[in-house]
Amino acid sequence: MRRYNLRHDVDGKWLVVDGVTVQPAKLDDVPLTGMGWPEACDMVALLNCLDAIESAARDYEALAAAE
Question: I need a surface site. Which of 11, 17, 27, 61 has the fewest CB within 10 A?
Fold first, then answer.
């Protein structure tokens, strides 16, 4: 399941929504709102990749701790 998704913002712009908090996602404390379609799509892809990497790292850490 993907954590980050797109939603329409005001004036035809887009925002990235964090599925955990159901709030606009933030990058370095900057809300990811008011973006054009290509930029918003890139941000969703990037954030979902980073989330997958963090999840895999936690899984590997748990496996290593169990050994």
Answer: 11
Comparing C-alpha atoms, which of 37, 49, 46, 51 is closest to residue 6? 37
- Calpha distance 4→26 (Å, rounded): 11
Q: What are phi and psi of 9, to 5 degrees?
A: -105, -165
Q: What is the pLDDT along the chain (67 residues), one digit of tens a residue?
A: 799 999 999 899 999 999 999 999 999 999 999 999 999 999 999 999 999 999 999 999 998 999 8
Helix, coil or strand: residue 21: coil
How remote is the C-alpha of 43 from its chain's centroid? Answer: 7
- Count other Cβ atoms within 10 Å, centred on residue 17: 19
Half-sphere exposure of 63 (CA within 13 A, CB side): 6
Q: Which pair of structure tokens corresponds to residue 66?
A: 């169990």
Range of the domain at 24: 4-66
